[in-house]
Amino acid sequence: MEFDLICPDLWLPQNLPRRNAICSDSKLKKMVDYSTKKIGKNLLDELKNAIKNVRGWGSVEIYVQDFKVTQITERNIKKTSHSIKDL
Fold it and tell me: Which InterPro entries match (predicted)?
């Protein structure tokens, strides 16, 4: 497994923490390399978990940058039947 060292103060896409960051004592984050050229079991497991976490309605977004998955975003949507006229 390959790791990239990321400074904890580095701005991340959408300003969201990456799910696979592991903080070390040196205050650096290690990232798992999720290549789209060679899709491994770890990436598939992360995607399966993200899909399982969607409750009824929602989406899973996968961000790819330079052939690497950089972010997996899970969104849950709450459906309502309220009319905005009632507000």
Answer: DUF2292
| Extents of the domains making up the chain | 3-81
Mean pLDDT by 10 residues, the chain (87 residues): 42 47 44 84 95 95 95 93 81
Distances (CA, A) of 2 to 31, 34, 40: 8, 9, 12
Kindly report the pTM of this predicted structure.
0.57
CB 7 within 8 A of CB 64: no
Cβ pair 30, 22 in contact under 8 A = yes
Residue-wise over 61-81: b if at least 16 C-beta within 10 A, else e?
Answer: eeeeeeebbebbebeeeeeee
Q: Which of 37, 47, 48, 49 is nearest to 2 (CA)?
A: 37
CA distance 61 to 44: 14
